[in-house]
């Protein structure tokens, strides 16, 4: 999944920095802005016990599948062939015109071009069938979330977008014309009882403790809720009334203070002040809306700070190239990784 702030390309850098800073190689690792679950899954495979959190439902489902689940369940009530059989039945479901088709396909009521007509109809049929199976008590929570996650990934793969769902493309990208297909997710087992939570990070931080807190907060003014609204719709399947040219959900209760210049510093300061872990790791790049001097001021009040940096290419959508202005003209961004040994006297 192409995702704002996704750290997949930086995982080795993060791990190498942890080793250099001599942090513990086991214990509880908290990922409180979990996103797609890439960081949590990586450190799950390093044998940490993971506590992962995100406020968005599609992120919660991704983390539930990749982090909480250690073993693929049987799916015995819907298929004699387990998960592969369940996915095969969903993939062969007869397409139908429904909520996704009417709101996000060119031949639908709203004439939007997020999905081809056929893929939109397939999404409608598959998502309704998954929900019906759950309502008929044919799926456990683990089984339900695996199927929804598989659909979200499949839909994202064929979406006619350049990176986010803030807008659709007027010309069809080649991947968007491929047939939607659900696939088995990569589920790994670390033999630990990993946890997933869906809560505001600043509220959750007051209730949890552990060895390492990893922070990857939103760093620019692009709110996640409107930029990934279709994924949220597929996750919650509430079929709410949509508004605007791009068919937005009501996201008034999903806005992040970390994407607001007027509130980000205060939110970050509150988060750090209420942290109860032995170490804090903060990922933040040089184009973030919180200035580096403010970050260091806040972190230095919590303990001893070490800083590591690496260059990488920024997240761009096709719309960015002409419309957005960056601090640097090229695509290079500097990722700052701050590692804090917490002073328990503070």
From TrEMBL:
One Pfam family hit: MethyltransfD12
EC main group: transferase
An example Gene Ontology molecular-function term: nucleic acid binding
UniProt KW Membrane keyword: no
GO BP terms, alphabetized: DNA restriction-modification system; methylation
EC number(s) recorded for this UniProt protein: 2.1.1.72
UniProt KW keywords: Methyltransferase, S-adenosyl-L-methionine, Transferase
Signal peptide: none
Domain of life: Bacteria
Annotated InterPro entries: DNA_methylase_N6_adenine_CS (IPR002052), MeTrfase_D12 (IPR012327), SAM-dependent_MTases_sf (IPR029063)
Catalysed reaction equations from the record: a 2'-deoxyadenosine in DNA + S-adenosyl-L-methionine = an N(6)-methyl-2'-deoxyadenosine in DNA + S-adenosyl-L-homocysteine + H(+)
Coiled coil region boundaries: none
Protein's UniProt name: site-specific DNA-methyltransferase (adenine-specific)
Organism: Candidatus Uhrbacteria bacterium RIFCSPHIGHO2_02_FULL_53_13
């Amino acid at each position: 999944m192409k995702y704002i702030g996704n750290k997949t390309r930086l995982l080795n850098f993060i791990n190498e920095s942890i080793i250099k800073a001599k942090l513990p190689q086991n214990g509880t690792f908290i990922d409180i802005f979990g996103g797609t679950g890439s960081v949590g899954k990586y450190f799950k495979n390093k044998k940490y016990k993971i506590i992962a959190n995100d406020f968005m439902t599609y992120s919660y489902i991704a983390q539930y599948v990749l982090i909480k689940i250690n073993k693929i369940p049987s799916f015995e009530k819907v298929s004699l062939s387990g998960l592969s059989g369940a996915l095969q039945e969903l993939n062969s479901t007869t397409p139908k015109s429904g909520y996704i088709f009417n709101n996000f396909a060119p031949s639908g009521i709203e004439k939007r071009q997020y999905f081809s007509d056929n893929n939109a109809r397939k999404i409608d049929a598959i998502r309704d069938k998954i929900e019906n199976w759950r309502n008929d008590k044919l799926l456990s929570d683990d089984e339900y979330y695996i199927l929804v996650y598989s659909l979200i990934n499949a839909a994202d793969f064929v979406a006619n977008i350049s990176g986010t769902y803030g807008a659709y493309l007027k010309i069809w990208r080649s991947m968007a014309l491929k047939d939607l297909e659900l696939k088995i997710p990569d589920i790994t087992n670390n033999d630990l009882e990993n946890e997933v939570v869906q809560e505001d990070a600043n509220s959750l931080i007051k209730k949890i403790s552990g060895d390492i807190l990893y922070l990857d907060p939103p760093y620019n003014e692009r709110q996640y809720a409107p930029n990934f609204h279709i994924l949220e719709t597929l996750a919650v399947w509430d079929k709410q009334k949509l508004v605007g040219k791009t068919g937005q959900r009501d996201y008034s209760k999903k806005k992040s203070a970390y994407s607001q210049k007027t509130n980000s510093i205060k939110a970050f300061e509150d988060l750090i002040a209420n942290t109860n872990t032995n170490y804090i790791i903060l990922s933040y790049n040089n184009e973030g809306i919180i200035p580096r001097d403010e970050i260091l001021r806040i972190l230095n009040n919590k303990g001893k700070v070490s800083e590591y940096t690496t260059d990488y290419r920024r997240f761009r959508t096709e719309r960015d190239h002409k419309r957005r202005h960056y601090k640097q003209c090229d695509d290079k961004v500097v990722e700052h990784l701050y590692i804090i040994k917490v002073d328990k006297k503070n």
